[in-house]
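Thread: Newbie trying to understand structure tokens

Hi all, I'm a second-year student working on a class project, and my supervisor (Dr. K.) asked me to get a predicted structure for one chain before our next meeting. I've only ever worked with sequences, so writing a 3D structure as a token string is new to me. If someone could post the tokens and maybe explain what I'm looking at, I'd be very grateful. Here's the chain:
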Amino acid sequence: MEEYGKNYPYTDDYMIFDEKKYRYILTAKYVLDSTGINLTTRLNAKGSANAQSAVNGFLDRISVLTYKYIDAHSINTQLRNHIIAICPSARPILQEAMLAQALYVLTNGDLSLSADKEKRALWFDETARITLCKLSEYGLTQKFDDYVYVKNYERKKRAYRIKMERNM
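---
Reply by user tm_fold:
Sure, no problem. This is what the structure looks like when written as tokens:
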């Protein structure tokens, strides 16, 4: 699939597509350009032997957490992975959600690893969650599909009730 001469999925300065993992991963450059946070400096506070590995590991973890959240709300994860990989308009949604999750993890730590059940329940950022709701236009989230179904059902039921009242 192409948009402005780019083949999807594709890698640029802000997000890479890992063919083996079949998912997008943010780059440190995107985090720096978007937030001013230098991940190498921020994550290398303890003087890691390989600062780049720490950054790559952090960004991969953000990707895992974001895709994990999407998976939990998806109808068909293989189809969803493919659509996110090739759909030009899904890419910036994912990029924005991963940035929000990165900021959340930098601020609060990776709560998905917490031993405290209450903290673990707060593992995913609300801003990222709201951003990912935009993926629902591709039918990628069951939660949204259920919501739309219920709303449409309620609307039809209300219309039917009004129609019946007019006929009386």
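A couple of things are worth pointing out once you decode it. The longest strand covers residues 15-18. The longest helix spans residues 142-167. Feel free to ask follow-ups in this thread.
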